[in-house]
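User: Need the bound-state model for iron/sulfur cluster:
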Amino acid sequence: MRALIIDCYTDEPAGLGVPPYIDVYPRYVAGAIWEAAPGAEVRYVTVDFVRANFERVMEYAAGCDLVVFVGGVVVPGKYLGGEPIKLEELTRWPALMEKPVKVLGGPLARFGYGVAGGRVAVHPREFEKHFDLVARGDVEVAVYELVKEGLRVEAVDPSVVREGYELVDRFAVKGARIVEQHPNLGWNLVAEIETFRGCPRWVVGGCSFCIEPRYGRVVFREPEAVAREVEALYAFGVRSFRLGRQPDILAYMARGVNEVEFPEPNPEALRRLFRGVRAAAPGLEVLHIDNVNPGTIAHHEERAREALKVIVEYHTPGDVAALGIESADPRVVKLNNLKAGPEESLKAIRVVNEVGARRGWNGMPELLPGINFVLGLLGETRETYELNFQFLKRVLEEGLLARRVNIRQVLALPGTRMWSVGGSIAREHAKYFRAFKRRVRREFDKPMLARIVPRGTVLRGLYVEAHEGKYSLARQPGSYPLLVYVPERLSVRTKLDVVVVQHGYRSVKGIPHPLDVNTASRESLSLVPGMPKSAVARILLKRPFSSLKEVEKVVGPEAAKYLAVGATRAAPPPSS
Ligand code: SF4
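Assistant: Bound-state model below.
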């Protein structure tokens, strides 16, 4: 049995799988194959790898028994780490593979292809002519059944869904070894980890645009099962983890779930969960979270505060609680059955700040709120955009921190209330959308970034991921990492610390810390805090220097603090 998994990348409200992230789908599918056929040869490739090695991959696929495509970008966007599969590739590639059974899984099979914000997704039906099996339920269960049935497609229900976590817990541990084939292993790979499925707000129908309530009852994964998976991933070299696959981490094992709209957070259960992860991965580099429902915080302020404190106790700094605020227009909140009104959302932002705003060892605040807006929803008017902006202004005026504002147009998915409306409101309001985005970037993002990482802040443990002109693009691994433009050509995978020297709208400029005065570019030298203007030319003339004392004579004591003589590298994280 020979199988190939093509990771077409995933991005959903509750789960990310674009490098440096690996989502659960390819890991679960690999585990399902190994569970059903222990001796199977399973290869994993990313869609970017296929593009770069097209002939080779197609030749390999032609000799396989099974090829599984997993992917789906429900929330379209641009990514530094990779480019999700294009529609044309998704329909052309399977046609080039004659022999193997071809399966499509993940959000692509469940919800379709998201063309762009405000544009209705291509329905999964469209893919049935290109694949033998479009797994509209849980792809790992479908693949498990398929392999057990000797690849007889007709014996598998394409809509099969898992009933609980029993099978998945086994697949997750068995499939962990697929990460050995991931191009980001050994540097910035982040494994997305699932802790539960379903939104507690399913009891009131959920938000108009969201698919999560369709899962029905919330089902939790036991902390021990999560720890076993993390232990397996850690054994294969993963050092960064995000407990991001759930709509609200504060609802983990919450009291009243499946009965009330806003169950009460359970800090004790969260402690078991996080402690288990820490014990399973003692030398981890990153442990982050993702979504938090602002309504949970607003309805249970005290318990939520305790729960957030538990997270901050066990996680690593630079963490983000992405709050699905969606709209600050009360009319839109009501018509779309959103989770929180503007006052409740503001309260949630205050509470997260109170617990998480202090700076951590890697230079970033411990835990900050992220703000998500969705535009093009029912009841939206021009005024909605003004209300959203006024909301952000209050955040600024109160001196609060917010890591980033995510503004997107609604993508109407089959099975949601927005499906019948489609992208018509978003299209009508496209000009307001663009103006709002520009205004937020200029008037909110830039001052906020300067507040979060003031000039002179040292950020630790970034990896160079790409280049743009003369700049290296580097980020810390984790939830919504800050993009840093470094004015040096450093090789991809280089790990370094930087000092923040300038702020853009969504990124900052940073120079390596400490900066090797003998090799630094002119631009880096000129950006060193406290560097006298005339000193840069003198350095360039006089180098190489053999001691920092010599350098200090040229630049003065203030700038010398940021400089070094000889190669530099990132400081190790403190042992936890
Ligand atoms: S609160 Fe709304 S957006 Fe969040 S998971 Fe539930 S239904 Fe979806």
